[in-house]
Amino acid sequence: MQGIKKYSATIAAVVMLSLGLSGCGNPLKSDEPEIQVEGKTVFEAGLQYVQIEERKQSGVANDHPFPISSENMRTVLESLYISDTVLFKERQSPLFSAYELQTLSNALSSGLARAESNEDVTFVTIGTHKSTIAKERETNTGRVFYSGGRLNIIFGKVRELYREKDPITNQPIDRRTNPLLPGNRAVDSEPDRRVALDNGQAYYIDPETGEERSDWIVLDIPTILATMAERRSSTQDGTLSPELREDIARNKQETSNLRDDMANIKEVLFEMSDKLDKLQKELDDMQGE
Q1: CA torsion 233→236→238→241, rounded to 10°?
Q2: Strand ranges (E), 162-262
Q3: DSSP readout, 32-43?
Q4: N or C: which end of the chain has fewer CB within 10 A?
Q5: Residue 261's beta-bridge partner residues?
Q6: What is the pTM of this model?
Q7: CB count, 10 Å around CB of 193?
Q8: Is 143 exposed, middle or buried, given 0-12, 13-18 or 19+ CB atoms closer than 10 A?
Q9: 85-111 burial by CB neighbour count: b if 16+ within 10 A, else e?
Q10: Cβ neighbours of residue 254 under 8 Å, at least 6 residues apart?
Q11: pLDDT in tens, 101-158
């Protein structure tokens, strides 16, 4: 009997979670913060920021200031995806949320246009992303600069789960002692997640060790822009606006991911139902003796 209660409760929980998946909407209903330029700070909202700072490691000077439109910057950022394993199946999902794209496309464009050759643009953002069960807040942090004809991003965190409290002590996390740091030229941050490379994207190779950096990507902007433009024109009606094409492509990907999640949950429910039937049969046999 205890076994039946256990599986019944589990099935009920899974059913509630599966229903919750279908009702996921956009959590970012509030107005997006405005981009404000004050001194070296380009954008700031709580723990989130985009700022220009002096680079701490010596090396080849950056090709700054670097002019890039916010539209092109958004396209480059939209091309970045990560690979995840969800319910034993690998899939790709956008690195940045819609809120992060809007904020970073404007702020990074402004920051790179104002930065000097000895300065980088660093950022911390917190976005809401869909997970297997519900939506979660995740953080991206990075260091951005243009050098050698390529845009470089050194990540500190790649869609890392954002917590306000310690999961063990339940005490608020002090960000003065546990800051959300951008990437560092000298040390690989070794993020748990990695960017899934596409056309015009590559991981940086350390010239001293010959090894690939897991946190540092190098982006060829013309190649990325051409690739994205070609895909949009070949998969969508030419009368649609670029913004609408992007929304359709993103929604298709999210719908496909959701469909996969629901299919996997159905398999889990089927297994549990089979086990419940066996337990019921064993109980009936015991009562018949």
Answers
A1: -100
A2: 195-196, 201-205, 212-219
A3: PPPP--BTTEEE
A4: C
A5: none
A6: 0.69
A7: 18
A8: buried
A9: eeeeeebebbbbbbbbbbbbbbbbbbb
A10: 130
A11: 999 999 999 999 999 999 999 999 999 987 766 789 999 999 999 999 999 999 999 9
Cα–Cα distance between 83 and 96 in angstroms, integer?
13
**Nearest Cα to 206, choosing from 224, 187, 223?**
187
Sheet holding 89-94, edge to edge: 89-94, 81-86, 195-196
**Residues in CB range of 213: below 8 A, 6 or more apart:** 154, 188, 203, 204, 205, 206
3-state DSSP call for residue 236?
coil
Instruction: Please say whether the beta carbons of 218 and 203 come within 8 A.
Output: yes
Residues paired with residue 123 on neighbouring β-strands, in sequence order: 50, 142
Cα–Cα distance for residue pair 139/252, rounded to 1 Å: 24
CA angle 98, 101, 105 (to 5 degrees): 155
Q: What angle do CA 136, 30, 258 make, to 5 degrees?
A: 35
Residue type, 6: K
- 8 A C-beta contact, residue 62 and residue 119: yes
The closest of 43, 40, 24 to 32, measured between CA atoms, is: 43
| Structure tokens that stand for 270 in this block | 């089927």
Q: Percentage of residues in the chain with pLDDT exceeding 90?
A: 52
